[in-house]
Amino acid sequence: MPPLFVFGLTSEKKLEHDMKQMAAEGTDAWVKQQEAEQHKKLKDSIHSLSAEQAEMMELYKDEVEHSGVRIVPGDTLSIPQRVANYWQANPFKILAAIGIPGVFYIFKGKAGQEHLQLQSKIMHTRVY
Fold it and tell me: How far apart are CA 42 and CA 107, in angstroms?
C-alpha cells in the first residue's frame, strides 16, 4: 500500500506541475495576444470593433492549434472522455473508490477464518 500511495502522490505532484506549466504557457499566449491586439489597434484604427474581435479570436485559435492541443467543444464530449477527465482531475478519489472496497472484501473473506486473530486478518488485507 505505501508504494501505491507514493505513486499516487507523485502522480498528483506531476499533474500539479503540468497544470502550473500550462498556466504559464497560457500567460505567454495571453501576453502575445495582448501585444497583437495593441499592434492591430495602432495599425488599423479604422476597422470596426466586431471585425477586430473576430480577427483576435482567429489569432488566438491559430496559436492554440499550433501548440498541439486538440480542441473539442465541451458539450460534445462522450461519456468515456468525461470519465477520463474526471479520473485525471481526481486520482486520489478514484484510488480510494477502488481500493477501499477491495480491502474490505479481503477483510470480509478472512472473517470466516475463526482461527485468525483480528490483527492477522487486518495484516492479510495488506498482503493481498
Answer: 72
